Task: structure prediction
Amino acid sequence: MGTIEEPTEDDLSVSSPKTWATGAPAVAHALRYALGQTSPRRTALTLLNINQPKGFDCPGCAWPEPAPGKRHANEYCENGAKHISDEATSRRVTADFFRTHPVSELAGRSDYWLNQQGRLTEPMVKRPGSDHYEPIGWDEALGLLADGLRALDHPDEALFYTSGRLANEPAFLLQLFARAFGTNNLPDCSNMCHESSGSALGETLGIGKGSVSLDDLYDADLVFVVGQNPGTNHPRMLSALEETKRRGGQVVAVNPLPEAGLLRFKHPQKARGIVGRGTAIADQFLQIRPGGDLALFQALNRLLLEAEDAAPGTVLDREFIAAHTTGFDDFAAHARTIGWAAVTEATGLTREEIEQVHRRVLGAGRVIVCWAMGLTQHKHGVPTIREVVNFLLLRGNIGRPGAGVCPVRGHSNVQGDRTMGIWERMPQAFLDALEKEFSFTPPTAPGLDSVDAIRAMRDGHARVFLGVAGNFVRATPDSEVTERAMRNCRLTAHISTKLNRSHTVCGETALILPTLGRSDRDVQAGGEQFMSVEDSMSEVHATRGRLAPAAPRLLSEVAIIGRLARRTLGDKPDIPWEDFTSDYDAVRDRIARVVPGFEDYNVRVRQPGGFRLPNPVNRREFRTPSGKAVFTRNDFTALRAPDGHLILQTLRSHDQWNTVPYAMDDRYRGITGGRRVVLVNGADLTRLGLAERDLVDLVSVWEDGRERRAPGFRVVSYPTPVGSAAAYYPETNVLVPLDSVADISNTPTSKSVVVRLEPARDRTADGQVTARGSQPKS
Result:
C-alpha cells in the first residue's frame, strides 16, 4: 500500500461551497478510498455485504435500512463505504511497528496518520517507565487488567467506557461485568452527543428515543431537519428525504451553515442523480445563529397559539391536548410572553422567515422534527428539545403515523448500547431484572458519565480506565485536561480495531487489546456467530461478519469481556461467561429475559430485517409520572459574544468519521488540503481586521479565567451567520471547557464556544506554523 505520509497544512486550497451532494463524484471518491486500502476482490466482497440482510451492519452512522426486498444491492453511502473499507484495510500494525515508534513519537502524530497505519494484530503492553509498547500474551494481558481492577480500593475507581461501534451482545456483557464488579461507572459516547435528547424526551414523553419509522418519514407532510448535516454525517437520510419530496412532503432545513445535501441531492443509484439535476431537498432554509433553535420553536409555538385564538378549534388538537397532555396552561401563558425582538436577536432570522415556516406548519397535517448535535450541544440543549416536543404536541403530532420526534443518532449502535444497559443511571426496573436473572444485587448509586469520569481521573478518584471501541481522548472536551486525567491513571486499556490517539495517552501501565471488526468473520467453539444492533428508529437486526479476520490472534469483544470478567470476578457471582463466549445465542437468551421488548430474541432477530422495538409513545402511552405527555416552560439566556469575539461551533469535515479524518479535505465546503481552518463570515473578517488566509490562533476563555488555545488556523471567508464561526473537531476540542456543559444532560457545549482570533504564535525557525500532530513541510 506504500508509505503513509504525515499530512501538512501547507497545501490548503479553497473554492466555493458546493450546492449539491452525492452523484457520481461520491461513488468515485468512495471507490478510490476503498481501493487504496485493500484489493479489488476484498473491496467488492466488503461493499456487497454492507447493510444486507445476510451481511454486516455499517459501523458508521445509525440510519436505518429499508425493509429486505426494498434495499439496493449497494445500500450504503460514500462515507459508509469509506468507513467499512477503513476496517477492511490490508494494512497491519504489528509488534515491529511499535518497536520502531515509541509512544512519545506516536503522541505527536496526527489522527489521520495513526488511523492509516492499519488494523491492530496482537495484544500490546506499555509497562511503567517504558516509552514503547511490546507484545504480551492474551492470558497475561487479561490477568494484568484483572489484577489492576481487583487491586482498587473501591469498584467505583474503575471506568468502563464504550462507543457506538459496540454491538448489543458485548454491550450487555460489559454492563453486566461492570455491575457484577460493583459499579455503575459506564460512561459512553451518548454522553457527548444525544444525552440532551434522552433527557428531554424522557421527561416529556417517558422514553428517550425517537418515535418515527422510515415509513413515517416518507409519509410526512412536513419534515424539519434541524442542526444536522445529512450529506456528510448520514447521507442515506437524503434518499429518504427524496422519497418524502416525491410523495408531496416538504422539508424545512434549519442550520447555521448551508449544507450541500440539503440544497440538492443527486441519488447515485438513479439516472436523475447521475445525468440529471437531482432533487432539491429543502423547500426553505433558515440560516439560524448557533443556539437560536429554542427561540425559533418558541416563536412558532406563539404563532400557533395566536392562530388558534383567531380561529378557535381549527389549529390546535384540543382533544389530544386534553386527553393526553399536562402542563398546557403554564406553557401557553409563557409562550405568549415571547417577544419578537428577543427571537430575532437569538435566531438572526426575520419575522417574515419564521411566519413563512408557520404557514407551512398550518398547511401540514403530519409533521416530523429531526435533529442532531446542533440542538444537543448547547447549555440549553435540553430546554430546546423540550420546546420541540411542545411544538409537536400542540397539533397532536406525537403518536400517530407520519409524525413524531426523530433524534438522528450519529454512531452505529449507540442507541442499542443504551438499551442494553450502557448508562450510568439505568432505571431500577432494569437493575431488578438483572438481579433476578443473575442472582446478585447490582449497585444502585448513579455512576459517572464521560465528563464526570474525566474529573474523577483528574482528581485521583478513578484509577483504571477500560475503553471498549472509540477514541475517548479525542471525543471528549478540554483536550489538555482530558489527557492529563488519563495519564493520572494506574492502568489504561483499550479494546480496539485501529490505532488512535487514545493509545498514546497512557496510564502508568497501558494495554492495547485488538479485536475483531464488524466485518470480520467470528467463529467460536459453538460455531460461526453473529451479533445484533439497533438503529436510530429502534429496528434491531443481525450483523454477520463475512471477511477473513485481520489477524489470527484477534479475539471478539464478547470473548475479551467474557474472559476478563472470569479472571476478575472468579465464580462470584455465578455467571456462565464461558457459555456466553462459546455461543452468542446464550447471551441473547438472557437479554430476552432482562430487557423489555426482546422476548423471543433469538427467533425474531433471525427474521430478514429483524424486528422493531415497541415504543409506547406510538400507542399514545406516556410513561411519565402523570401518565401523560408533558408541556414544559423553557427559559434561556441567549449566548452573546463580547466585542471582538465570535461564537464557534465545532463540526466534522466531509472526509471524516467521528474523530477520524480520512483525508485533509472537506469537498462540499470547498476546503482541500487542510483541516486547520476557521470559517468566518466576510463581514466579521472586516470588523475584526482580518483577511482571507490570515494565520490565527483560536482562543477561548471560560469563567475560570483560563485561556484555551488551538494554534495555527487559516481564516476562510464563508457564509456563516454574522457573529459566528466554525472549525473542525477534534482539533478544536481543546477549546471546550470541561465545565461548560448542558444543563441536566451534562453534554459538552461544543456548538457554542466563545472565541477570539489572535495572530498565530507558534512558529518554527523558518517561519512556518506547526499544528499539533503535523510536521512542517521540508
